[in-house]
Design brief:
The protein has helices at residues 11-23, 27-45, 54-68, 70-81, 86-97, 99-104, 128-147, 150-194, 196-213, 220-230, 236-257, 261-275, 280-287, 291-311, 337-359, 367-373; strands spanning 112-113, 116-117. By secondary structure, it is mainly alpha-helical. The longest helix is centred in the middle third of the chain and has 45 residues, at 150-194. The chain is globular and about 75 Å long.
């Protein structure tokens, strides 16, 4: 039998293509929320908007709602990719974010479901759990569509699919997804005790993917304790700052390299949001769909993170790592050394990532992919 000449996509390509198709329909919301979030950060930093005011509450909730309920958006688009019912998938996400379920999560260590132990978990802002759950829903739906008689299929198929998807999700797949994210965060916290420069390098290189997995949330307790005990933290912000700036630099190069007007506009928006510390638009709309951009982010962010670790610059507050967080890097004693190292780390990451994308062979995405990403 002759080789057809069609190269089978690798596992990595398959996963990346799936992620691209899952996130593309949601990028307009992520981009809008990201820009608004950045604007709110600037308004707070400059004192135009003060905390504990109606302005701060409303503007912050508008921007954060999209990210909090991200699993709902991802459920719908994931269903399209995995060829399963989108409404039922969305309902599974709504179940995970139901206020009663969220409140009950803390009781799960002492609870069980018909003898099967339940594990605690927080699914707001998460990515991996809902994608795994919707992937499983596709198999559940096809199984029951095959075995149920046509006469009762329309009645009982949605019952079985919805119930089993939610149950398997909250018992098995949701905890697995959360575990993967927590594992990343715990590993980084452990490494920080012995090799801080390595932690900032890892966060700089792979911070975008750690954020995507929700692993950065497990770092918050470690960071909070560090700030309360020492007055500063030395790994999360110093590592994620060059990660975001590398993404910004890579997206900035795409503005110059792309021949598609709409995609240049999207890349400009992604550049701005990444500079302000919001990575989702650039990650899902630029880095994941294009390998050269992803490579640039890893290399630029890693080198910027290495510089951050070697110089030992720290953050004196728990901040969103971006340009608006600059005040958090100013030393209380008035010294500018820490701030200068933070700025140099940002510049290193931005410039290296920009140059890699600019000088590497570049190929635009297909018009169809760009249309999905830039859809209005």
């Amino acid at each position: 039998m002759e080789n057809s000449g069609i190269k089978k996509p690798s596992v990595l390509d398959t996963v990346l293509n799936a992620l691209k198709d899952i996130f593309a329909p949601n990028l307009i919301a992520l981009s809008g929320a990201g820009i608004l979030q950045g604007i709110v950060i600037l308004l707070q930093t400059t004192g135009v908007v003060h905390s504990d005011t109606a302005e701060d509450f409303i503007l912050t909730r508008i921007s954060s709602a999209v990210f909090y309920f991200l699993p709902v958006l991802l459920a719908y688009s994931s269903a399209k990719v995995f060829k399963t019912n989108a409404v039922l998938a969305t309902c599974a996400a709504l179940f995970l974010l139901h206020p009663d379920v969220v409140d009950a999560m803390e009781l799960f260590p002492t609870s069980d479901f018909f003898g099967v132990p339940l594990y605690p978990g927080n699914y707001a802002n998460s990515v991996i759990p809902i994608i795994l759950i919707v992937w499983a829903q596709g198999y559940i739906e096809r199984f029951f569509a095959k075995i149920l008689p046509e006469l009762i299929r329309g009645i009982f198929l949605p019952v079985f699919v919805l119930a089993l998807t939610c149950i398997i999700g909250v018992i098995v797949l949701g905890p697995i997804g959360n575990f993967l994210g927590d594992l990343m965060g715990s590993g980084i916290g452990l490494l920080n005790q012995y090799a801080n420069w390595l932690v900032t390098t890892i966060l700089g290189a792979f911070g975008l993917f750690i954020v995507m997995a929700g692993g950065h949330y497990s770092l918050f307790p470690v960071v909070t304790v560090a700030i309360s005990q020492n007055g500063f933290e030395s790994f999360m912000a110093p590592g994620l700052l060059p990660s975001n700036l590398a993404l910004a630099g890579a997206c900035a190069a795409v503005i110059l390299k792309s021949k598609n007007k709409d995609y240049r506009g999207y890349s400009l928006s992604a550049t701005v949001t990444a500079i302000l510390g919001v990575s989702q638009p650039g990650l899902y709309g630029v880095a994941l769909p294009m390998k050269n951009v992803m490579i640039a982010c890893i290399v630029g962010g890693g080198i910027g993170g290495l510089y951050a670790g070697i110089t030992g610059f720290v953050s004196y507050a728990l901040v969103n790592p971006g340009l608006a967080a600059i005040p958090a890097f100013i030393s209380p004693d008035g010294s500018l050394t820490n701030l200068m190292n933070a700025v140099i780390s940002m510049l290193i990451a931005f410039v290296i990532a920009f140059l890699i994308v600019y000088f590497m062979p570049y190929k635009d995405l297909s018009d169809a992919d760009i249309e999905k990403i830039t859809a209005e």
